[in-house]
Amino acid sequence: MSIPGLGIAPTAATPTAAPTSTATTTIVSLQPFWEWRFEVPVSSSLTIRLLSGTAEKDGTELAPSTPYTFSGAKSKINTWKGCELQVTAPTPDAYDAYTSKPTADETPMVSYLNLHMKLEGLRAAAAKAIGNGEGDMGPRILVAGPANTGKTSLVKMLAGWATRMGHQPMVVNTDAAQGMLSLPGTLSAAVFATIMDITTEWGGIPSSGPVATPIKLPLAYYYGLSSPDENLRLFKSLLSRLAVAATSRLAEDPDVKKTGMLIDTRTPNAAKGGYDLLAHIVAEFSVNIIIVLGSERMTAELVRRFSGQRTSLGECIHVVGLDKSGGVVERDAAFMQGAREATIREYFFGDVRRSLSPFTQSVAFDGVGIWRIMEAPTTATADSDDFYNVSSREQLLEKVEPSLMMVNCMLAVMYASVHDAPETIRDSNIMGFVYVADVDEKKKRLKVLAPVSAKLGDRPLLWGSYPEPMVSL
Amino acid sequence: MSSYQETEDFERDFREALEDLQVNNRYDIQNLTMIARENTEHALAISQVLQDHLKRIAPHKKLPSLYVLDSIVKNVGTPYTLFFGKRLFQTYMDSYASVDMNTRRKMDEMLKTWKEPIPGSIDTRPVFPPDVTRPIENALIKARTSAMHAQQQNLRTEQQLLGRGRSMGQPVPYRETPTPPGSGYRPPSQASGYPAEHAASMANGSPHGHPTQPPSHYPLHQQQIPPTRSTPQPPASLHAFQPLHGGYSMPQSGISVDALTDDIQRLITAFKAEVSRNPHDPSIQTRLKALLDLQSLLQSQNLPQDQLVLVKNRIAELAVTIRAPPAQIATPVPIPQPVAVAPSPAAAPKVSLDSLLGSGALAALLARGSATPQVSTPQPPPATVAIRSPPPQRVEPPKVAAPQADPMSLLNMLRKAGMLPATTPSSGSTPVPNVAPSVATPFPLPVHGMTPPSLENLTGDIAFKASSLKQYVFRPHLLSFMYEALGPQCTQCGRRFKTDEEGKKKKTAHMDWHFKVNQRIAETEKRGQHRSWFIDEMDWINSRETIDEDYVAPTGDSGAQGSAAKAPKLQYIPVPDDPMLANSVCPICQEKFETRWLDDAQEFVWPDALRVGDRIHHASCHKEAMGSSAVGSLYSRNTPEPVLGKRKAEVSRSHLEKCTAYGLRLTEPKQDELTGIRGKLKMEAA
Question: Does A134 touch chain B (CB under 8 A)?
Fold first, then answer.
C-alpha cells in the first residue's frame, strides 16, 4: 500500500462498497459560543447550509439557507447566538467533524471579539481625527505566534468583522509559504471592502468574468523561496517594497486609512534572527499593535523588544498575548502541499463553480528573459546585518537560459522589462504566473501555460524554487 | 473503551461525590483522589467537573474541593496537572476572591506547595510548572497591594466623616499604620508618592475642603478597589497596577478630574452612611444614585473643562446638603472592622443596606461604586461597562441633583442592571459576583432617548492588555454592533444592511448588483474565461475599492490620470448588430474578433478593434499596416492588455520597443513618486 499510485485502488473500490449511498445529511445545532469544527480532504466535499440563527466562518457571516461547499479545508463554523446547520456530504465518511462546546468564559473567541471591538473604537477615533484633517491612521495590527496557532484565521476574522462593520481593512501577508489572493511564494496585500468568499481561503484571484463574490485586487511580489532566511536580503527588500506600496495606498485612500492594516506573519525562526525580521516588519508597516497567539514566551520576548518603542507616527507599540483557539489543528506538510497544488491548479483552471481556460504557447528561447532567484550564501544568512552592508551585495538574481530543469516549474511574470536592471526586475510586482510545460533544448523552444492568451512580450520571468515543481498540473 | 454514555455517567457520579463533600474530611478527599487515580481516562471530565464545581459552590465550601484538587495533582499528577494547569489561574483566583481570610491563608499555603516539588518524591519538578503558578502569585501580590490601598483609603474617608463629629486625632495614627490588624500585609512603597501639586489642586477644587484632610492621598485607581473583595478579580486587580498615568501626577490647570472624583467618592461614602441611617428617605437614595452615575460618567469620559465646572457645582450643592447635619453622623456609622474579621472594612454598613435593598445588593453596589473609580485611568477594567446600568453619556451632569420622584426607580434600575435579585428579600448571603450580571444585562437598555452610545466610548474600557482582552468578559452589548445594529442580512451573500433610509438605498444598489452579476455569470458561462493579470503597483495604489458596482478594470481610470494624453481610452467598437459584419474577420490578419463585455460601456464589444470605412480591423494590425503613429499611440501599455488581456494581433517589433520605452519611462518617475510619498509620510511623522 505504500507504493505511490496504489493508493488509487481502494478509492476506486469504494463505489462498490457504497454504490447506493446517497448524500447524507445531518443537522448540527449549536448553542451560543459553540463551534463546529470540520476537516474535509481535497478529494471530497461537504455542503453547509445555515437553517436558522446566525453563524460565521472566520468572521464572515453565512447567508441564511445558502449552500456553501467546502473541499480541502480544516476549519470551523462558530456562532455567537446559536444556530442550526444542515451538513450534506456525498458519503458519510467524506469529512471529519465534531462540536466544541465552550462557554463564554472559555472560548478565546471572546477575547478576539474584545480585541476587534477595541480596534473599532480606535478606528472610530481615527476616522474622527482624519475628518478633522489630522494625520491619524487606523490601527496597524500584526499577528504573530508559533506555527499552527491560528494566526491567519485571526487575521481573516478581524478582516471579516471589520468589513462587516463597513470598513476597508488592508490585509498584508508576509508569510511567503502561503499566498494570499496569490500563489505561494509571494508576499501580497489587498484591501477587503466587501464580503469574503468563505469557501476559499481568501477569495478568488481576479479573472476575466464576473463572480458572485466581489473580487479583491491583490498586489503581489515574488519571493520564490519558502522561508525568509533562505534569502533574507531579498525578503527584506521585497517587504520594504510592499510596505511602501501599502503605506502609499493607506495614505491616499481615506477608507483604508481609517481602518488600518492587518498583517499576517510567519512563525519567527528565533535561531535565525526571526525576531529581527518581525521588528523589520513592525518598523516598515508602522505597526502599533502586536498580537501574539498561544505563546507566552514569544509574548515576553516581543514585549521586551518593543517596550517603550514608538512607531514612526509616535504611537506606543502594544504587545498583547492571547490564547490560541483550542480548535487549531496541525496541518502537516502533505496537507499544505496538497493545498498549494490546489491553489496553483485553481489559478490556471478555476474551480468547480467556473472553469477558466489558460493558453498554451510556444516561445523561442531568445524570446524570453528568465532570471533565477538565488538562495543567499549561508554566510549571509547567518549575519542578517549584511543587508545594510553594501560591500556584501552579491547578485540576488542570475540570468539563466531555459533548461530542462525548469520543466514543471512556475515562473513569475514581472511588471518590468527584460532590459531593466536586475534590481528593478526584482523589485517589480507580479503580473501573473506561467507554468513551464515543456522545454525542447534541441529546437530551443519553450512551451508555457499562461493564464492569459496575450504574448509575454518583454516581461521578465523569475524562476524560484517555491512553489515547488508540480508534476501533474 | 469509554463510551460517551459512560463518561457522562461517570461525570455525574463524580459531581455528586463532590457535592457530598461538605467539610474538610480527609477520608473523603482521599477517596476522591483514588477515583481520579483509577480513572485517568476520564481525567478531562474529572478536571472539568471539579473546576465547574469550584466555580459554583458557596465560598465556605470551596476549601474542601480545593483540597481535592490539591490532592489529585500531588498524588496523581499528570494528566491532571495539565488539565487543571490550563485554567488554574481562573479557578484559583475566582475562589480566592470569594472566600474569607482564613481560607485565603490556606490557599496561600497551598499555592506555596504547588511551587515546590512533591515532598518525598524523586521528581524535582514543582507540582505545577512555574508558568502556571507565577501569574497567580503576581496577581495576588498586586491584589494585596491594592487591597491595602483600598482599606487605608476607606479607613481614612470613614474617619474623616467620623472625625468631623468627634475627635480629630484618629486619622493620623491610621495613616501611619496602613496595615489593619490581622491582615499581615505590608504597605506598598509607592503609597506616599502623591505629588504635592495635586494635593493643592484638590484643596482648591474641593468645594468642601476637609480641614482634617491628611496631606497624603493615594492615586485614585488604587484607593477604590472594591472593598467587598479585597482580592479583586484578575482583570481589575491587574489593571489596578498599571503605572500611573501622566494625568495623575501632573499639576492640572482648571479643575482636576482626580480631585473631583475624590470628592465624589467621599460624598458617596457619606451618602451611603446617610442611607444606612435613613433607609426610608428616597431623596438620599436618588442622590446617591446620581452620584454613582456621575462617578461612572467622570471615569468613562474625558469631559471638557466647562462640563467639569458644572459637575463641580453640583457636587458643591450636594456637599452642602450632606454636610449640614455632620454631628448626627457620628454614632450610626459603625467603625470599620479589622480585615481579619470581615474581608472588607466597608462591610459594616451592609446590615442596614441589605435590609433596604436585599442581600447582596450592597456588594453589588459597592463593587459598582468602588470598582468604577479604577476606570479613571483611560482604559478601565472590563467589567465596569457591563455593569453600569445606563450608558455613561445618558446621564447628563445637570441632571445629577435633580431629585427623582420615584424612590423605586433606583431599585428598578439596579434590578434591571442585574445588581439586585429580582425579589428583594433573599436568603443567600453570597455577594453578587460582578461579572455574572454583565452577561444577563440586556444592553443597550431601551430607556432614555438620548445619544446612542458610540463604539468609541463603549470600548474605552478595553485596554491593550492581555488581562483586559483575555479575561473572557463577554460583552453582549458590543456584539450587537455586529448583528442587530447592522440590520438584517442579504439572503444571497449574508451582508447586513441597516433599515434606515441610507441602508435601504445601499441594499437596493446591492441587490441590483447581485442581479446584474448573476445575469452576467449566466451569460459568460458560455464563453471562455480566464485568469487576468494582476494590476501594476501604481494602479493598485490608485485603485479604490468599489462596493456594489461592477468590477471595473482599474486600468482605465488610473491610467487616465497618469497618461491621459497617451492612452485616452480603450480602443474598441461595439459588436456590430449586422450579422454580416458580426462574422467578419480582420482583413489584415484574417482572424475573428473576440467578443467581450465591457463594464464601462455596458455592452459587448470587440476590444482592439477599429472601424475603417465599412471594414473592421484589429487596431494593432491596422496600425502596423499603416505604419502610422497616429493610431498606434492610442494603443499603449495601458490599454486592455493586462486586464482585458486578449489581444489577437501580433505585436510588432516597433510596438514592443515603444512599450519598452514607455515602460522604462514609467518606472523611473514611479520610483520617485513612491519615495516622495514615503518621505512625506515620514515628514508627517516627524
Answer: no
- Band (pLDDT 50/70/90 cuts) for residue A449 is very high
Q: Which residues of A touch B644 (CB under 8 A)?
A: 208
CA of B235 vs chain A CAs: smallest distance (Å): 13
* Whole-prediction pTM: 0.55
Side by side, which strands form the sheet with B596-598? Answer: B572-574, B603-607, B596-598
Query: A194 contacts in B (CB within 8 Å)?
Result: 495, 545, 547
Which of B457, B483, B537 lies at the smallest CB-CB distance from A245? B537
pLDDT by residue (tens digit) across B140-191? 887 777 766 666 666 655 555 554 444 443 333 344 333 444 443 444 444 3
Mean pLDDT confidence for A94-116: 89
Q: Identify the three-state secondary structure at position A167.
A: coil
pLDDT at res. B317: 58
User: Per the CATH hierarchy, to which homologous superfamily does domain A24-100 belong?
Assistant: Clp1, DNA binding domain (2.60.120.1030)
User: How much is the average pLDDT of B222-249?
Assistant: 38
At the topology level, CATH places domain B1-128 in: 1.25.40
Chain A contacts in chain B segment 113-132 (CB below 8 A): 131
Closest CA relative to residue B343, chosen from B220, B221, B224, B180: B180
Residue A68 has pLDDT above 90, yes or no: yes
Residues of chain B in contact with residue A120, where contact means CB-CB under 8 angstroms, are 455, 459, 481
CATH of domain A358-379+393-472: 2.40.30.330
Report chain B residues whose CB lies below 8 A from the CB of A118.
459, 462-464, 469
Q: Do B540 and A245 touch (CB under 8 A)?
A: yes
- Residue B300 pLDDT greater than 60, yes or no: yes
Domain range list for chain B: 1-128, 258-319, 486-527, 573-625
Q: What is the residue extent of each domain of chain A?
A: 24-100, 108-322, 358-379+393-472
Q: Do B466 and A299 touch (CB under 8 A)?
A: yes
* pLDDT for res A430: 94
- Measured CA to CA, the distance from residue B253 to residue A304 in angstroms comes to 36
Window 429-448 of A: residues touching B by CB (8 A cutoff) are: 429-432
All cell numbers assigned to A87? 451538513
Residue numbers of B between 230 and 289 with CB closer than 8 Å to A: none
Question: Which string of b and e fits B124-158 if b means at least 16 CB within 10 Å?
Answer: eebbbeeebbebbeebbebbbbbbbbbbbbbbbbb
ipTM: 0.89
Domain A108-322, second-level architecture? 3-Layer(aba) Sandwich (3.40)
Q: Which residue, among B202, B200, B235, has the nearest Cα to B89 in the 3D structure? A: B235
pLDDT value at B555 more than 60: no
